[in-house]
Amino acid sequence: MRARAKYNTFSSIKEARKRNCIHSLVYPSNLTIRLQKITAFSGAFVLVLFLVLFLPGNSSAAISGICSDCHTMHNSQGGSEMATFGGETGPNSFLTRGSCVGCHAQGTADNIVTVGTSQIPQVYHTDSSDLAGGNFRYIDDNDNRGHNVSDFGNIDNTLSSAPGHHSVNDPTTETLTCSGHNGCHGYRRFSAGSGLPTLKGAHHGNVDGKCDTATTVANSYRFLYSVKGFENMGANKYQNLNDTDHNEYYGATSPVDYVCATCHDMHDDMKITPPNNTISGFCATCHSNFHVLSGIGGSTTGPFIRHPTDIVLPIDGEYASYETYSVEAPVGRTTVPDTISSVVTPGTDVVTCLSCHAAHATNYPDMLRWNYDDMIAGGGGSGGCFTCHTEKN
Predict the structure, then answer these.
(1) How far is 322 from 384, CA to CA, in rounded Å?
(2) What is the C-alpha to C-alpha distance for residues 106 and 187, in angstroms, rounded to an integer?
(3) How far is CA 381 from CA 21, 45, 307, 321, 349, in A?
(4) Worst-scoring range by mean pLDDT, 68-77, 148-157, 381-390?
(5) For the segment 52-67, what is each residue's pLDDT rounded down to a tens digit?
(6) 99, 193 in Cβ contact below 8 A?
(7) Is residue 28 part of a domain?
(8) Quick one: how far is CA 382 from the chain centroid?
(9) Torsion of CA 322, 327, 331, 333, to 10 degrees
(10) What is the pLDDT of residues 90-125, one digit of tens each?
């Protein structure tokens, strides 16, 4: 009976509203409290929603659109195969219409391929301009132009393992893949294998723009697990186009020294992560001897026995003249920024691996962003090494 009485009271209030005589009714105290709680909750929800949608920070760029643009249920339609991206035949894991290579290395004349409403960046193409990571097509001309990823079937005929790696057998140039334990993208666990399974959920949960969490593949910079950074979100979102239109790389003021547990999680299938979340720290998980503190000479101030990374660009001398961001020699930021900046601040910004190299491949030896043979001290040149070493030209 008590429950029914409450119901009748609430019904009476509703009827009174309809008759415009709500002012003549008195709310029971318990109903008033409940309504106040609902109102407070609604206000808090709206506030949280506003903060998520409109304040700077992570933003979602998860895959959206027609499911069949990317997936096929049985790899068959009208008697024809559907998993044909990049000339493949499938079937593939997660019912996709292409593997990593089939989707992102189609070999067309476009550096970005559009499927439905989704733009698919191409890492192997014949376009006249390359994306920020470079273009694996260059390794067709010479093995020393980039990473010889086994997925492309072009094994390095000179190197057998990663230069500077503490282990000559892990990975070898025959086992280097796009993703997984012996790759760069996705989760890098011993039992993870390679390919799409190591990227499970990343495309549908992708975080674009500011990636300063890096606790999953989806919220890490460019699906490089545990790497922080800012992904270019403009019209040229996959490119480093100019000083106002580029990615922002995350760096540190000192490289770390490595022991096994620095990169490997002994309690999580020997999972591999960069301990400092930087792009250079990530490169060091394979090229560690080149980038650890002891490997560069044991000091962040020199003299160096190898070109340092994850150190501050000096504030004095010739380095002080590097003030406008150059996509030919990008710097790293010690804090992941909210937006792209065209300003370089010596004494604060840092040198990274990507200050000199591209991630995939370039048209120059050793994956450099410029031709090292053209860097002639006293020759009056510009760019390349002379972007930082402004008095050496």
Answers:
(1) 12
(2) 24
(3) 85, 58, 21, 15, 24
(4) 148-157
(5) 334 444 555 678 889 9
(6) no
(7) no
(8) 30
(9) 120
(10) 999 999 999 999 999 999 999 999 998 889 999 999
In a domain, 29, yes or no: no
| CB-CB contact of 145 with 359 (8 Å) | no
Instruction: Say if residue 154 is exposed, middle or buried (CB neighbours under 10 Å; 0-12, 13-18, 19+).
Output: middle
Question: Distance between CA 46 and CA 40 in Å, rounded?
Answer: 10
348: which residues sit within 8 A by CB, 6+ positions away? Answer: 312, 313, 334
- Residue 137 in domain: yes
Question: Which has the higher per-residue pLDDT, 120 or 2?
Answer: 120
Quote the tokens at residue 179: 């993703």
- Residue 148: give the domain boundaries: 59-393
Least confident of 39-48, 97-106, 318-327: 39-48
Nearest to 179 by CA among 167, 166, 164, 189: 189
**Rounded-to-integer distance, Cα 32 and Cα 26, Å:** 10
Total number of domains constituting the chain:
1
For residue 193, CA distances in Å to 21, 175, 182, 199 come to 70, 11, 8, 11
DSSP string for residues in 49-108 = HHHHHHSSSEEE----S-GGGTB-SSS-BTTB-S--GGG-----GGGBSS-HHHHH----
Copy the structure tokens of residue 49: 């929603």
The whole-angstrom separation of Cα 260 and Cα 266 is: 9
| Residue 172, beta-bridge partner list | 161
CA distance 352 to 240: 15
Residue 100, Cβ density class (10 Å: 0-12 exposed, 13-18 middle, ≥19 buried) = buried
Determine the Cα–Cα distance for residues 13 and 23; give it in Å rounded to an integer: 10
For residue 286, tell me if it sits in a domain: yes
Q: Which two tokens stand for residue 79?
A: 């008697």
Outline where the chain has alpha helix (H): 2-18, 29-54, 100-104, 260-263, 279-284, 288-291, 293-296
